[in-house]
Input
Amino acid sequence: SEPLLREAAPKSGMRIVMEKEQVFIVDSALVSVTMLLVSCLSFALPTVFTQAFGEAETVLSISRTSACIVGLSYFAYLFFQLITHRNMLAGEPEGEEEGEEGLTAWFSIGLLAATTCFVSVSSECLVNVIEEVVSQSGISECFIGVILLPIVGNACEHAAAVRFAIYNKPGLSISIAVGSSVQVALFVVPFAVIAGWAIGQPMTLDFGMLNTTVLIICVLVVMSIVVDGRSNWLEGYMLCSAYALVAVMYWHVQSFGDSNGEL
Output
């Protein structure tokens, strides 16, 4: 049914759109959230094992094996999404519009490589000044790392997601928002563990009880939002509220070492 337009202030001419909802294909969103839950499992098990037994060598072995399994799951996810079930996960074909020709493949690869180099240099500079910012501003490193850096670092993704949502393409918005999380959880984190293994640097999937609990609850909140294939302003407000609640908690966590204790 068409959204109802009612006058909120007749004299000023302002109107509020009533009963407005955006509909998207739920299959792709549920697949991505399921992959996030699998990654949460790979983080939770080493964390719980550490709290229960505290055997560092065993936790390291579990983390490396889990990283290999989760990394393979990411490639299975890509194969599923791009080859075997591409049509099922294709969203909103009726809304596509033919535009101007895009960049060539080689130019895109070169641009991506140049951008990657620039981002790596910028990230190195950013990491070097975090300690100075923490000491001078009084803001904890946890708040900077968990709340502020993701906002700044993913600004382009946020802008693209909002832009597609304004164009009434919520499926693309969800793919951008959830897809980047899947990439980090199923590829970047396991790759870091495996790379540390290769260079002799012990890295585990034990993120501490606090961080792991926050991660799992956030994924469950996202799943409850996308499971019905519809979205409205209240669900968006709830997601913003959840982010604000996490921000309030991490404001009071001074360092990542403090988040490894029991809840």
Residues 4-10, 93-98 have pLDDT under 50 and may be disordered. Residues 108 and 114 are 10 Å apart (CA to CA). The two ends are 47 Å apart (CA to CA). The first helix runs from residue 26 to 52.
